[in-house]
């Protein structure tokens, strides 16, 4: 049995807590390795190393830091296949999808190459007689990030690339379900020229997370994962005086207007609902056709597409649309929710419950499911299923569809399919959700914009990546300076306007 490590102080270090989590091959159901779960002492040791390494890195000019990012991009491209294979084998997503996971992280690294420009401060020449005023964006010191299983390459890179480009040290606590790629990324950053101790990977569970939240040296914490944990981390981190941003779960609605191109809408729903087995925070999990006639046409287009979906292991290459879910527990939870949908009266139009793959009977595969006539009181509507299950809620009007999405407690992403510019414009303006697609099913903003939901999908002020990341990982210092020729004799006792 392979025993994974932490990556501390530039070395692979064995866990000493005696606690481990099983890492599965989701396609076969076998345990492929053991992930060490760090103790508070192990986490604190990494923080001490980070704190010692950070001042020199923070004082390194931003152009040199950017060059490390440039080289890292080259290495990511060099090792793309190796990384994608490791990612698929622990997560289960298809090989092309694993490459997409890496690519969307890489693009944020590319954005961070702009650090010299993005870190420029402000300067006012002659704010008063002989007085200049300027602001600097300085690193926070030691930052930490806690990431989910579903994007084990992209989300760590969304955090550590801007944190490091801004001159911080970073401690990553990745998901214990697929920790290998984060370990590989830390090694690659050092190969790219990052000094040791600046990017460390401490594997673990709640114990390591609590140690992060309680360590007074750590200045900021980024979290991406489910909403209850996001809420917990935000509360505990903030009450310990840290800067915290937490991104939680989702229940993304797609509104289909009567004038939409129904083939386009059905194709979009199939990709966005079932891609990565529905294990995406930007997956569409609720289809909201407007009007019964639209709903009937949509279901008619969806059913054959869903029935044709190919489910299998990533080793089958391009012949697979989606793979297994991440663990047996995830599969059980999904099947339990599907049963609740049936029990509570939703119509199961495509039933994948009997799905089994020859040769992979113990894998965590879940066949595709489509529900129609779902109502807002049902568990399958209220909860995030995080599986290959699409729920259709029929709305009588555009206003009813809009209200439905607005009343849901989650607010990560949403989309509208229509040919009517006025409806699309109204939707984008009024919806209380952070990321909106117009005829785009998964509107994940590119690296130079920012990513973040509203409502219970986000706790904090600043979004991920784009300009917000450079705000989150720096603090502003403003200097007012006057040189001796301008200094008058005697003290001044009032707040002065600059004259
Ligand atoms: P999760 O909340 O179970 O785990 C996320 C991280 O929190 C992991 O590192 C885990 O070790 C840690 N953790 C788990 N339980 C903890 C506890 N009790 N105390 C402290 N830390 C704990 O989430 P997951 O299953 O890995 O990921 C799926 C979830 O993440 C979904 O809800 C999905 O919508 C969400 N997600 C959100 C975004 C976004 O940007 N909003 C992106 C990706 C995933």
Question: Explain this structure to me?
Answer:
It is a single chain. The protein has helices at 40-59, 62-78, 80-91, 95-112, 115-118, 154-165, 180-191, 206-214, 227-239, 262-274, 292-307, 328-343, 379-382, 398-407, 421-430, 466-472, and strands at 2-3, 6-8, 11-13, 20-25, 30-36, 122-128, 131-139, 142-146, 169-173, 199-201, 218-224, 243-247, 252-256, 284-289, 347-350, 369-372, 389-392, 410-411, 413-417, 435-438, 454-455, 458-459, 474-482. It has 499 residues and is an alpha/beta fold. The chain folds into two domains: 2-248 and 466-480, Aldehyde Dehydrogenase, Chain A, domain 1; 252-438, Aldehyde Dehydrogenase, Chain A, domain 2 (3-Layer(aba) Sandwich), CATH 3.40.309. The strands form six sheets. The protein has a seven-stranded mixed sheet, sandwiched between helices. α2 (62-78) packs antiparallel against α4 (95-112) and α4 runs parallel beside α6 (154-165). The longest helix has 20 residues, at 40-59. The chain is globular. The structure holds nicotinamide-adenine-dinucleotide (NAD). Residues 146-151, 173, 175-176, 205-206, 209, 224-226, 229, 247-250, 281, 384, 386, 412, 453, 457 line the site of nicotinamide-adenine-dinucleotide.
């Amino acid at each position: 049995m392979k025993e994974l490590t932490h990556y501390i102080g530039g070395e692979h270090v064995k866990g000493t807590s005696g606690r481990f989590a099983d890492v599965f091959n989701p396609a076969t159901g076998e345990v492929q390795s053991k992930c060490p779960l760090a103790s508070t002492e192990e986490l604190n040791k990494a923080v001490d190393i980070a704190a010692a390494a950070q001042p020199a890195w923070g004082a390194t000019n931003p152009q040199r830091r950017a060059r490390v990012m440039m080289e890292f991009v080259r290495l990511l491209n060099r090792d793309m296949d190796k990384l994608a294979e490791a990612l698929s084998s622990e997560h289960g997503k298809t090989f092309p999808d694993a490459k997409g996971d890496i690519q969307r992280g890489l693009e944020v690294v590319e954005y961070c190459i702009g650090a010299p420009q993005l870190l420029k401060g402000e300067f006012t020449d002659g704010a008063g007689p002989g007085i200049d005023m300027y602001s600097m964006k300085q690193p926070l010191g030691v930052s930490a990030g806690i990431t989910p299983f579903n994007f084990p390459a992209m989300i760590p890179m969304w955090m550590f690339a801007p944190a490091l480009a801004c001159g911080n040290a970073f401690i990553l606590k990745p998901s214990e379900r697929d920790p290998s790629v984060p370990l590989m990324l830390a090694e690659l950053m050092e190969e790219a020229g990052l000094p040791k101790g600046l990017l460390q990977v401490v594997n673990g569970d709640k114990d390591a997370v609590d140690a992060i939240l309680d360590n007074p040296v750590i200045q900021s914490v980024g979290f991406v994962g489910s909403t209850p944990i996001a809420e917990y981390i935000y509360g505990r981190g903030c009450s310990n005086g840290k800067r915290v941003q937490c991104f939680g779960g989702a229940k993304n609605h797609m509104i289909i207007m009567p004038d939409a191109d129904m083939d386009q809408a059905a194709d979009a729903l199939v990709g966005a609902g079932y891609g990565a087995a529905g294990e995406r925070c930007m997956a569409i999990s609720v289809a909201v056709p407007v009007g019964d006639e639209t709903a009937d046409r949509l279901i008619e287009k969806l059913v054959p597409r869903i029935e044709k979906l190919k489910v299998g292991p990533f080793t089958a290459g391009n012949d697979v649309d989606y793979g297994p879910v991440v663990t047996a527990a995830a599969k059980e939870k999904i099947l339990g929710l599907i049963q609740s949908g049936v029990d509570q009266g939703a119509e199961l139009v495509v039933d994948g419950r009997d799905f089994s793959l020859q040769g992979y009977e113990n894998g965590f595969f879940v066949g595709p499911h489509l529900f129609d006539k779902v109502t807002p009181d049902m568990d399958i509507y209220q909860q995030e299923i995080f599986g290959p299950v699409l729920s259709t809620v029929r709305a009588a009007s555009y206003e009813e569809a809009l209200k439905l999405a607005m009343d849901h407690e989650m607010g990560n992403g949403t989309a509208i399919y229509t040919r009517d510019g006025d409806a699309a414009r109204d939707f984008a303006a009024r919806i209380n959700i952070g990321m909106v697609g117009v005829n785009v099913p998964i509107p994940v903003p590119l690296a130079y914009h920012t990513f973040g939901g509203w409502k219970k999908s986000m706790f904090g002020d600043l979004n991920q990546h784009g300009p917000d990341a450079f705000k989150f990982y720096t603090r502003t210092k403003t200097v007012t300076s006057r040189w001796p020729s301008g200094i008058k004799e005697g003290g001044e006792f009032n707040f002065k306007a600059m004259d």
